[in-house]
Design a protein that fits this description.
Oligomer: single chain
Helix content: over 70%
Largest sheet: none
Shape: flat
Structural class: mainly alpha
């Protein structure tokens, strides 16, 4: 259970850091840059803790897949990005792939 909570936290931290990337203005804004880099570092550190219990392939697939989907939602809701049927279908394929990895018994 703790592993799932840590994985969820790693995903949220990475998504927040990614959503804040535009604020760094190409890493020329020091405060935002430190926040973004710290977010990525914290998320990766959490992954190192998680892979003690879960296989790295499953951990990374869940982290990357969920992170990608959530960043797309954040982009749509908060950053004014477009959302097309192709984008929706592509995100669905990512989710299907993550579920498929978990169903193969890789963990």
């Amino acid at each position: 259970m703790l592993t799932a909570v840590l994985l969820g936290l790693a995903i949220v931290v990475e998504v927040v850091a990614t959503a804040l990337l535009p604020r760094t203005e190409g890493f020329t804004s020091p405060g935002w840059t430190v926040l973004v880099v710290s977010g990525y570092a914290g998320s990766i550190w959490l992954l190192t803790v998680i892979v003690r219990t879960l296989p790295v392939s499953v951990t990374y697939a869940i982290w990357a897949g969920a992170g990608t989907a959530l960043v797309a939602v954040v982009g749509l809701v908060f950053l004014g990005e477009s959302f097309t049927w192709l984008k929706a279908a592509s995100l669905a394929l990512i989710v299907v792939g993550v579920v498929g990895l978990n169903l193969t018994g890789a963990h």
